[in-house]
Each structure stands twice: as structure tokens, then as C-alpha cells.
Automatic annotation (TrEMBL):
Stated family: Belongs to the methyltransferase superfamily. Type-7 methyltransferase family.
Keywords: Magnesium, Metal-binding, Methyltransferase, Transferase
Organism: Salvia divinorum (Maria pastora)
Gene Ontology biological-process entries: methylation
Lineage: Eukaryota, Viridiplantae, Streptophyta, Embryophyta, Tracheophyta
EC number of the protein: 2.1.1.276
SUPFAM superfamilies (UniProt xref): S-adenosyl-L-methionine-dependent methyltransferases
Protein name as it appears in the record: Gibberellin A4 carboxyl methyltransferase
């Protein structure tokens, strides 16, 4: 399956949309407001470009994207601004619902801080994978990408044997049931993708420019902590409930795996150092407690908004309501007895 042609957040503004079900991502991003603004201001005071290029990579269709842009632009507007225009580049895969995003642009322009002499904010969309080239040579001063780079460019080929049979039959991602080759294949795919991401941005970001990245990650090298396996194990269990009800075939579940990987600090550091175009300036863990008011059903909807496109491509649209009902019920039971957190890694990288 070609991820680029299938994967997208649920579009529109309806009940199952990413727009209405992305508060986890919004909360995590808000935790690094300060870090991102500080990095922007440092970049701005060192470079003071006439035409400032900012990009949001993996922006999706929700209001989150323009909220981040507004914060970034407003932090630089003011009487001292030497910039005569802000060029804002919104990127996501071609399958993204850019129209829903564009429809919010008039409100975005209206909400921007008014002031004498504020420079124009010019927004453009750049559909394509951030694992390849996207923008013109040395056109960007600041890049951010929030909650996007844990999504790999493909399902790692190494999770299948030579005959194309799945090796990770008892799970949809890395869990205690996964054979070691599966873990290696996921880690290798992440390393390859992250390297390609840095190589692409190395051409596009000016020297002294910065990137602030927020990536779902692991706090230690352990793959199997509750926080890391909780959602996947329950999702797998929900698939098996549908198998036992005769709604899907067991083989379909055994051959389903996600194109997702959560790196740890060492992996990020090693790749940044070896690729060599950026310096790692800041590294922080961002822990977001799951709000106790979140029911299993709310959590299931948050996962559905992100994963439905890939799942319905594999299993068919018809099982989605049943699947996420089961998932919500299972999560309700688990969340009654256990607390868990979502962990992200925040990094600031400076272009050498
Ligand atoms: C969970 S959403 C995060 C959206 C937004 N940044 C936020 O904070 O709410 C992840 C986004 O990354 C996008 N994405 C994943 N892989 C991508 C790739 N290779 N190139 C561009 N966008 C990608 C997805 O399509 C999706 O819109």
C-alpha cells in the first residue's frame, strides 16, 4: 500500500473529523509554545530577513495549524519588525483536506493582531511528503512540525518474510508479542525517514534557520511500557472481538500493521549528528496526562480521526463504527483502573 496515496486525517468538521478530535495534539503543542517562540525570536534577531519564510509540516486540516502560525507570526510582529512580508507554507500529504483549512483563512487573517504597519501574511499550500524536497532552495527561516513525524513514509518492508507473509501477526505495532526483526525493521525505517527529512530541509532552510519538532517518542529505550503499548494492544483486541463475531477474517488482522514509530533520545541524537546539517540545540520530553474527563469513547474517536483512512483501506469502511465502539468500551474499562500519559519529544535544530 502506498501510504502517500491513502493516509490522511479525517477531513471536514463532522463528528469523526480530526478538526473536532485533535485536542490531545493541541494540548501537547501548547506545552512547547515557549520553546517554539524562543527559537523563532532567536532566529529572527540573528537573521532579520526582509521576507521571512515559515513552514508547518504535516499541518492537517484542523484549526491547530493556523493557531500555531498565528502564534509564530504574532510573536515577531511589532514596531521593531524589519520584515516586509511573512511567507507561510502549509504542508501535508496530497490526500489532506486542504479545503477545510483554506475555508478558515478569512477568520485567520481577521484575527491576526492588528497594528500600524503590520507586514502582509501570505499563505500557500505545498502538498507532498516531508520525506522529500518540498520548498525552494534556502527559502525558509523557521520550520515547525508538530505530532507528524512519528508517521513513517511506508510500512517497513522488514516486517514481512521473504514470501511476503507478515511477521508481526499478534500485534499491529511493536508490543511484547512482536519478534525482534519487527522492532529492528521499524527502527530502521524511522532512521531512513528522519535522515531523508533532514536532508530535504538542509537544502531549504537558510544557515542559522531553526526547526522546532514535536514527535511522539519514548522516554527510555524501553518499547513496552504501559504508556507505549496501551492503545495498540487494546486496538488489536478490538479487531479480535470483530473476528470472533465473524465480521472480519483473522488473516486480515494478522496482516495489518501501522506505519508509525516512536523514537527515543539516542536515536534522534545519532541521526542528527551523522546527517550533519543541523545542530541539536534543545531536547525536551513533553508528557501530557490523559485528561480524566476523557472517556474511552472520546479516546477512541481521537484514534479514529487519525487512523480511519488506513484501516478502511485495509478492512473496508463497513466495520469502522463497530470497531471503534468496541475500542471505546475496552478503553473505558482500562482507563478506569490505569492512568496513562502521551509522551512527545520536542527538539530545536539549528541549520549549520
Ligand atoms: C496527527 S496529525 C498532526 C497535525 C497537526 N500538526 C497538529 O498538530 O494537529 C499528523 C499530520 O501529519 C501528516 N503527515 C504524515 N506523514 C506525512 C508526510 N510524509 N508528509 C507530510 N505530512 C505528513 C498527516 O497527514 C497529518 O495531517
Amino acid at each position: 500500500m502506498e501510504v502517500e496515496k491513502v493516509f490522511h486525517m479525517n477531513g471536514g468538521v463532522g463528528d469523526t473529523s480530526y478538526h473536532l478530535n485533535s485536542s490531545l495534539q493541541k494540548n501537547a503543542a501548547e506545552r512547547i509554545n515557549e520553546l517554539a517562540i524562543e527559537a523563532m525570536e532567536q532566529t529572527y534577531s540573528a537573521l532579520r530577513p526582509k521576507s521571512l519564510g515559515i513552514a508547518d509540516l504535516g499541518c492537517s486540516s484542523a484549526s491547530n495549524a493556523l493557531r500555531y502560525i498565528k502564534m509564530a507570526v504574532e510573536s515577531l510582529m511589532g514596531p521593531d519588525t524589519k520584515t516586509s512580508e511573512f511567507r507561510v507554507c502549509l504542508n501535508d500529504l496530497p490526500t489532506n483536506d486542504f479545503n477545510t483549512l483554506f475555508k478558515t483563512l478569512p477568520d485567520f487573517y481577521q484575527d491576526l493582531k492588528k497594528g500600524d504597519n503590520n507586514p502582509p501574511v501570505l499563505v500557500a499550500a505545498y502538498p507532498g511528503s516531508f520525506y522529500g524536497r518540498l520548498f525552494p532552495h534556502k527559502s525558509l527561516h523557521f520550520v515547525f512540525s508538530f505530532c507528524a513525524m512519528q508517521w513513517l513514509s511506508r510500512i517497513p518492508p522488514g516486517i514481512y518474510d521473504d514470501q511476503g507473509r507478515p511477521l508481526n501477526r499478534e500485534s499491529v505495532y511493536i508490543t511484547k508479542n512482536s519478534p525482534p526483526q519487527v522492532i529492528d525493521a521499524y527502527a530502521k525505517q524511522f532512521a531512513e525517514d528522519f535522515w531523508a527529512f533532514l536532508e530535504g530541509r538542509a537544502v531549504e532552510v537558510v544557515s542559522g534557520g531553526r526547526m522546532a519538532l514535536l514527535i511522539a517518542g519514548r522516554k527510555t529505550s524501553d518499547y513496552f511500557s504501559l504508556d507505549k503499548t496501551f492503545l495498540w494492544e487494546n486496538l488489536h483486541q478490538s479487531f479480535f472481538t470483530l473476528v470472533s463475531k465473524g465480521k472480519i477474517e483473522k488473516e486480515m488482522v494478522e496482516s495489518y500493521d501501522v506505519h508509525f514509530y516512536e523514537p527515543c533520545k539516542q536515536e534522534i541524537q545519532d541521526i542528527v549528528t551523522k546527517e550533519g546539517s543541523f545542530e541539536l540545540e534543545r531536547f525536551e520530553f513533553v508528557e501530557t496526562e490523559i485528561d480524566l474527563s476523557f472517556s474511552g469513547a472520546v479516546m477512541a474517536k481521537a484514534v479514529r480521526a487519525v487512523q480511519q483512512s488506513m484501516m478502511s483501506h485495509h478492512f473496508g469502511e463497513g466495520i469502522m463504527d463497530d470497531l471503534f465502539d468496541e475500542y471505546g468500551k475496552l478503553l473505558d474499562k482500562e482507563m478506569d483502573t490505569k492512568n496513562f500519559k502521551v509522551i512527545h519529544i520536542a527538539v530545536v535544530l539549528r541549520k549549520l
